[in-house]
Amino acid sequence: MKLPPEGARWLVTLRWPACAAVVLVTWLASDVVEVLENPWPLYLIACAMAGYNTLFYLAQRDKSAGEGYVERDIFLQVLFDLLALTLLLYFADLPRNPFLFYFVFHMIIAGMYLRGWAPYFFAAFATVLVGGVMVLLYLGWLPAHPLRFPSDPPQMPPLDGLDLAGVFLAFASALWLTTYFTTSIRRYVDRAHAEIRQKEKMLGIGQLVAGIAHQIANPLDGIQNCLRRIGEEVGDDPHLSEYVQLMGEALQRIEQTAKRVQAFARPRGVALERTDVNQAVEATLEVLGPLHGRNIRVRKELGNVPPVQGDPYTLQEVLFNLCTNALYAMPNGGTLALRTYALGSKDEDQMGSVAIDVSDTGVGIPRVNLERIFEPFFTTRAQNGGTGLGLSLCRMLISEMGGRIEVRSALGQGATFTVILNPAPPLPESAAEKKPTTMG
Q: DSSP label at 423?
C-alpha cells in the first residue's frame, strides 16, 4: 500500500496545535500552578517547532508528492520532533515529567508511514536520547531543571539510580513494543491490501476474457453452419471437400479453445485436501525433467514436513510455473533449488505452516519491480512471449488455498519465491489409518 502525500501534510497540520499546546501548558505550569521555575527555554523550543514546521509547509508546496518524497518528509519530521520533545522534557524535569511517554505517538507514526529499518531506528534513537539525558543528569554532568510540586521538600534530593532505571526500563520497553506491534500490523494490512487488489484485478480479467470468448463463440456457430451447407454442395469435388474438412477442424479447435477460456474464466474454488508438499515437488521435477538445459543443475532439499491444506494438482501447477520462470532467469545456466521446510513458530500468521522455496541463481529482479511482479500483465519478457499472467495466477491460486507467496531477490544474485501454506487439520481417529493423498 503506497503512502499518500496527505500523511506528511497531516503531520504539519497537527504540529500547529501541538506548538500552541506547548505554549499553553508551559504558561499553566509556570504562572498558574507554579511548578516550572524557568519557562523561557520551553517557549523558545515551541518557537523553533513553529519555525521548522513552517519550512516543512513551504517545502510541501514546492515539491511533487511522490511516495519517496513522502517517506523522506515524514522521516525528517519525526526526527525533528524527537529532538524537540527531548529538549522540552529536559527543561521540565525529564525523569519525573508525565509527558515522557509522548514518545510513543512518534513510534506509532513511524510504524504506520515508514518502511524497513526506519521505525526501529527511531525507537533506538529515542531510547539513546532519553537514556543519555538520564545518565548525564544522574552523574551531574547536566544542570537539572526540576519541577517544584507542592509536596516536594525544600531541598530536592539527588536522583535515585534504581528509580531512574525503572523509569527508563518502562519507557524503553513501551517504545520497542509499540514499534513492533505497529510495524507488524502495517505489514499485515499491506499484505491484505495487496491480495484484495490482486483479486479485484483477476476478477476483472476473468470477466473480460469470458466476454471475449462469448463474442467469439456466437459468430463461430454461424460460420460452422454455413460451412456445413457449403460441404453439402461440393461433395462431388474431393479437393474442395478436403478444404472444407480442414476448415471445419480448424473452427472446431477455435470453438474448443473458446470453451476452455470460458471455463477458465468462470469463478471456481480449489478442492482443499491433505496435501504432501514433498510429493508435489517430486511430481513437478518429473514433469520439468526434459525442459531444463544441460547447464542447469537441479537441487532439492525436502524436509520432514507435515501435510498442508491445499490442492495437490494446483500446487504442482504453481511450482511448475515458478520453476519455468526460474529457468528463463538463467539463460547461461545455473542452479535451480527447491526446498521444503516447516516454519513452526517463525510464521506470524499461522503456527505450524509449511514453506516451499523455489530459488535460482539467475539475473535477479530489480528492486523497483519487486512490488509489481504479481500484477496482471506486468512482464519483463514481453519480447520472448511473456504475458505477465503467470505470477498473478500463482498468487491467486495460492490465496485460494489459504496461503501466500513471497519473493526475495537482488539484481544479479538470483531470486527466491516462497510458497507458504497452512497445516492440514488433524485426521479424525476413524481416518487416521488411511493413506495420504498421492499424485502421479
A: B
Output the pLDDT for position 197: 66
Q: Which three cell numbers stand for residue 77?
A: 519530521
Query: Which tens digits make up the pLDDT trace of 303-337?
Result: 999 999 998 888 988 898 898 888 888 888 889 99
Which sequence spans correspond to the domains of the chain?
6-159, 200-265, 273-425
Between CA 222 and CA 161 the distance in angstroms is 92
> Hey, which residues does 337 pair with through a beta bridge?
299, 359
Pick the CATH number of 273-425 from 3.40.50.720, 3.40.630.30, 3.30.565.10, 4.10.640.10: 3.30.565.10
Q: What is the mean pLDDT of the chain?
A: 82
**Is residue 342's pLDDT more than 50?**
yes
Beta-sheet pairing, 296-302 with 334-344: parallel
Task: Write down the residue that cell numbers 525442459 correspond to.
Answer: 291
CB atoms within 10 A of CB 224: 16
pLDDT in tens, 380-392: 554 554 555 678 7
Q: What are the two backbone dihedrals, phi and then psi, of residue 12, each rounded to the nearest 5 degrees?
A: -65, -45
- Could you identify the residue written with the cell 532467469? 329
Strands 404-409 and 415-421: antiparallel
**Cβ contacts of 272 within 8 Å, gap of 6 or more:** 309, 310, 311, 401, 402
pLDDT at 185 over 60: yes
How far lies 348's CA from each of 76, 181, 185, 408, 431, in Å? 31, 12, 11, 18, 30
Distance CA 304, CA 342 (A): 8
| Length of the chain in terms of residues written | 440
All three cell numbers of 120, joined, read: 526501529
Q: How far apart are CA 173 and CA 75, in angstroms?
A: 22
Q: Is the pLDDT of residue 235 over 90?
A: no
Residue 415 near residue 409 (C-beta atoms within 8 A): yes
Nearest to 350 by CA among 191, 159, 180: 191
* Residue 343 φ/ψ region, left for φ over 0, alpha for ψ in the -120 to 50 degree band, beta for the rest: alpha
Grade residue 440 by pLDDT with cuts at 50, 70 and 90: very low
Query: Mean per-residue pLDDT for 130-146?
Result: 93
